[in-house]
Amino acid sequence: MIKKHISIISCLLFCMYIQVYSQSVSQNSTSDIDLIKKRVVSNLIAQNINEKHIESIVNTIKPNGTWPDINYEDVSREGFQHSDHYDNMVAMAVAYNKKGSQFYKSRKIKNAITSSLRNWVENDYICDNWWYNEIGTPSSLVNLMLLIGNELPKELVDGAQLIIKRAHVDGPGARPGGDRIKITVYFGLIGFFVKFGAK
Predict the structure, then answer these.
(1) Which of 33, 93, 102, 182 has a Cα at 20 to 30 A from 18?
(2) What is the pTM for the complete model shown?
């Protein structure tokens, strides 16, 4: 599943990010970054998708961009089914970009992604557990932006970027070790996305 690949992809992103930005800016820097972005997106798209699951979440999404099987009221540490919401968004974005999938470049999928992201941006769901606010949600939104950000309304991309920026190294969750590395990756990637776009 998509969650299992986050750590691997994050480490890959971190290494490539450092490699690019440790070099002096040259005429080839933009093409280097485009190449990195293509590789990152390729890794995301390479994940297997469950087409029955995709069909289900596309067909059951409500007009307000929510799903009927998710409890949006419970933001406790033990609850926060909202993670299923952003998992659905990323899963749809992978299917949307996966050649050979019945959902490849599907307008219905794109509309569902737009509707669900609009709901998240407008409600800005915050969990009592810092991990979701500083790692879980930002990492999923980074992946979403890399996959389909260039096709989404600007106001939603701008709103998502504000949420992603909660992954910062001075936050309470940025403890030495793995958590700080992950947050550094996502914090760097939002600058990466903003500066060079999600082509």
Answers:
(1) 93
(2) 0.78
Cβ-based neighbours of 82, under 8 Å, separated by 6 or more = 70, 72, 75, 125, 127, 132
Phi and psi at 50, nearest 5°, equal: -100, 100
Q: How far apart are the first and last CA of the chain?
A: 25
The owner of tokens 């995709």 is 54
The HSE-up count of residue 107 (CA atoms within 13 Å, CB side) is: 0
pLDDT in tens, 54-84: 999 999 999 999 999 999 999 998 899 999 9
Residue at 16: amino acid letter: M
Write down the domain spans for the chain.
2-196
Domain 2-196 has CATH 3.55.30.10: no
What does the alpha-carbon distance between residue 17 and residue 94 come to, in Å, rounded to a whole number?
22
Question: Could you give the CA distance from residue 57 to residue 16 in angstroms, rounded to a whole number?
Answer: 33
Taking 60 as the threshold, does the pLDDT of residue 18 lie above it?
no
